[in-house]
Amino acid sequence: MTDRTDPARTDPQPSPAAAHGPTSARARAVERLQRYGIFLALVVVCLALTALNEFFLTPRNIVNVLRQTSINGILAIGLTFVILARGIDLSVGSVVALAGVIAASLATTSSGAAVAGGPYPVAVALAAGIAVGAACGAASGAVVARFNVPAFVATLGMLSAARGLTLLYSEGRPVPALTDEFRWIGTGDLFGVPMPVVLFIAVFLASWWVLGQTRFGRHVYAAGGNPHAATVSGINVRRIRFAVFVISGALAGLAGMILAARTGSALPQAGVAYELDAIAAVVIGGTSLAGGVGRVTGTVIGALLIGVVNNGLDLMGVESYYQLVIKGLLIVAAVMLDQTRNQRD
Amino acid sequence: MSSPLLEVEGLRKSFGGVSALRDGRFRLERGSVHAFCGGNGAGKSTFLKIVMGILPRDGGTIRLNGRAVSFTSPRDALAAGISIIEQELSPVPAMTVAENVFLGREPVGLFGRIDFAKMNAATSDLMDRLGFSIAPTALMMDLTVAQVQLVEIAKAISYDAEVIIMDEPTSALGEAEADHLFEAIKVMKNEGKGVIYVSHRLTEIFGVADTYTVLRDGAFVEEGRIEDIDKTRLVELIVGRPLTEEFAKGNKPQNEIVLKVEGIDAAHGVRDVSFELRRGEILGFYGLMGSGRTEILERIFGLSPDSVAGRITIEGRNLAARAPRDAIRAGLALVTEDRKGSGLVMTQDVRANACLARLEKLQASPLMMSTSAERDAARRVIDLFGIKTASDRLGVSNLSGGNQQKVVLGKWYLTEPRILLLDEPTRGVDVGAKREIYQIVSDFASEGGAVILVSSEIEEVLGMADRTLVMRDGRVAGILDGAEMTAPALLHLAA
């Protein structure tokens, strides 16, 4: 990269590109600061909390924050795909509940709530939960991609429908008494790392790979950045739009099962308003709601920032009502920073 | 001695330490049309944005009627008597023509109700005065691009400003519509107004302007009277070096037919189109806006799946492209007329855009892109087409129009096409870059490719095409060859 920048800069006539591009060292420093600003914010908040509270920087609390963040983090990663492709998925909270109760009904020892022949092996239950999530995503995706219904509307419909199906399926009652094997994905650990955190990291790495290193990832960015140009370039934009919803749905299914496994029973009213925190994490992480711009790393940092702030306020005994207000301010402030950057460009 | 209408001196502006404008100067007299010339990146837009109060300046003075002014918003400028027709059209699609013309200054009646009758009547008068035939109650979204541009022109004129800035006002207009505009400009001139006219089309400048100012690399170069200069000299001033010839053409059509189109239909009422394209040939498509040229390209490229009539054969094989990817596989490439709308992903960098249509060949494995292959491909395109960019990772939005267009061409170069469909490939591109694009097109045809060149610039068609197909109202009006191909003949067939 450097071998190309230098000749252009020694060009005696300022090139038109140079007139707008970040060329001076200071401009580049500013750009870098903005690009990593969200990460710096996370570091600053962590340092502040360390100074303010002796419990914050203990291994136990850190693991706690990660565990609390993992469900929102997984949902937010799924949403990153959708938002990058210029969509939105409001249904993830309901899908969490639906996948949770269905998977749980395959993994419960309670005779009242179990599917006949159960409890099934944990792999069956897990596969079912992910399949249910993916099916919900496929339904939303088909409506969006095939019938050109705005994603906001399609997934608003799914938000309601999936919640209704959850209540129908569970008859409005929790699915209790899950098998130990199933509970392990919520409460177990792998080499001392809690399973939700392990899954969160695995989802992050896989998504980072898919978005950054594969052709599919390039297509997602192009389809979100300019669907017309992507179509003309031979990309099947409809297929991409469909696929991102399937990914988001499948990850919501996974998150729903982790939640059920952690609590020991699947609640039909689980996951209400989870989509809001997930969207917040994506937005704080710098992904543009207009599509085509953003990174999954940003989303993870955004989710961690929300988790750390919640945890810190808990530790300091701040009332949860205040926490909501502070979270709201955080979301708006993060996007305001982003906007000022865009305006300067 | 009376002071000029608008006088600008020593205007300076830099962005992040890089100077975009070093010495902007301009003198506009009453009752004159003053052409403001310069290549892409010369600083014209920056200059105009400062005058309109959209950007603050670092230094320099602006005097309107001899009084120093400093606007902080376009609203201020408008109030002081400067209006602008911007290059980028910004209509409100769901509103009527009249609502758009009166946006922000709607006449109100009782209880704040908008006086629609008055507004429509005033708009109707305005359109009549300018000779534009557009109904005031038509919705903007139902208009063609050319009509939208005419409405924006009418809107700018309706402010009755003393100074009217026109930034590429004819970019979407056909010859006939442009003539209406030139008539309107004459009227304004006679009323003692001053017009600043920006256009890459030199023929227009020589037809409409009285005086010129050339800006290059952010600095004033020369001003003078149009009658004292010729086209060649003006191009030299703009580009900064003598230009051998405006067009570059070295291709020779061969006998072999590569694309055969028989009786196809297309969107917007295009019907029964037949033509043949030979290896090594550049076939011009000429016609007015909305005559169906773009629709034919889209149909061939698989962008209008609802049109099924007729037959398209490529190198003897039937092509029924249901989507662009089928057409790309068959060896076609389409450079669309709307560079920002459907050519480039403006949020991404040069590399991502250059590689976009060729990703499957730039993978290390089905599960992984090869970053080095992508980088090499992008750099090959940058070198080959001489794209001026600091790096292949620079966002395409930072490039000038000409360089953006070269990125689009580069994207298609990487797919190794045999037939190139070009829709207004030099729109909004400065003279220097234009010539480079002509060279690329000519080279492509010389090496055995075939080209369809859609253009609204008659000189471009005459200068580049071997034959020209003329469209009128969705039908082929004729195909002209060799000596028959003259400006009057093309115009006659098109209108």
UniProtKB/TrEMBL annotation, chain A:
GO terms for molecular function: transmembrane transporter activity. Residues 1-23 are annotated as: Disordered. The keyword tRNA processing does not apply. CDD domains: TM_PBP1_transp_AraH_like. InterPro entries: ABC_transp_permease. It is a multi-pass membrane protein. GO terms for cellular component: plasma membrane. It is found in: Cell membrane. Pfam families: BPD_transp_2. Keywords: Cell inner membrane, Cell membrane, Membrane, Transmembrane, Transmembrane helix, Transport. The chain crosses the membrane at residues 36-57, 69-88, 95-116, 122-144, 151-170, 190-211, 242-261, 320-337. PANTHER family: ABC TRANSPORTER PERMEASE PROTEIN YPHD-RELATED, ABC TRANSPORTER PERMEASE PROTEIN YPHD-RELATED-RELATED. This is ABC transporter permease. It comes from Palleronia sediminis. The lineage of its organism: Bacteria, Pseudomonadati, Pseudomonadota, Alphaproteobacteria, Rhodobacterales.
